[in-house]
Design brief:
Oligomer: single chain
Shape: globular
Structural class: mainly alpha
Number of helices: 7
Strand order of the largest sheet: 1-2
Order of helices and strands: HHHHHEHHE
Distance between the termini: 29 Å
Number of strands: 2
Mean pLDDT: 81
Strand content: under 5%
Largest sheet: 2 strands, antiparallel
Radius of gyration: 21 Å
Length: about 210
């Protein structure tokens, strides 16, 4: 959304922005059978315990067992990540809604409207640089990596280079601004066709690996 043409379109037709937000929400949808999630967690515990016991006994762990453990870890990690992103999105939408009501002189309670707290103006790593670093991370891993691997790579790339605004926390008080921006940039890269949006849950994959 940093593109001036997009900003112009959204300004002329705010409904397009609503549609884009809905698309993001749909992609982050974490609607899931709670019973299924609980079942996967239970399965992971049992399998992890079995793998640990086999390794301690010096017995070879079947590849299928390791593969199933990895699958469950990725599935649960992806669910948790999507829920966290949706929670952050809900918090930010709540703040936007408050801002809109303040601008319209509405607050739903009849009380005096307090001035909205301004967003921090401290310098942050640009979206363009984050995009290049995400691509660098994925290319160094043959075009495909887990979310945790990408974040670990970016932590190394940006070690000692993060700006003051990067180190602030989002409204949840837990997530650093730069990590949150990495997640949003990944979504924009999917929209731009740079990252596949059909990869396995918890995996980021370049749409085309550059030689």
């Amino acid at each position: 959304m940093s593109d001036s043409n997009d900003m112009e379109r959204f300004t002329k037709d705010p409904g397009l922005l609503v549609e884009l937000c809905q698309d993001v929400i749909d992609r982050l949808d974490v609607t899931a059978d709670e019973a299924l999630v609980a079942e996967q967690e239970a399965q992971l515990k049992v399998i992890a315990r079995a793998v640990d016991q086999l390794e301690k006994s010096g017995v070879a762990v079947p590849d299928m067992l390791r593969a199933e453990k990895s699958r469950l870890v990725l599935a649960l990690a992806s669910f948790a990540e999507s829920r966290q992103m949706l929670t952050q999105l809900a918090d930010e939408f709540d703040e936007l809604l408050k801002n809109l009501r303040e601008r319209l002189g509405q607050n739903g309670s009849g009380a005096e409207v307090k001035p909205r707290q301004k967003r921090s103006k401290l310098p942050r790593t640009s979206k363009e640089e984050l995009r290049l670093l995400i691509i660098q991370s994925l290319e160094s891993r043959h075009g495909r990596a887990t979310v945790s691997e990408v974040k670990a790579d970016l932590s190394k790339f940006l070690d000692g280079k993060l700006l003051a605004g990067d180190l602030e926390y989002r409204q949840d008080g837990k997530t650093r601004v730069w990590l949150n921006n990495v997640q949003w940039e990944r979504l924009q890269m999917c929209r731009d066709g740079l990252i596949r949006n059909d990869s396995k849950s918890g995996v980021w994959e370049l749409a085309e690996v550059r030689s």
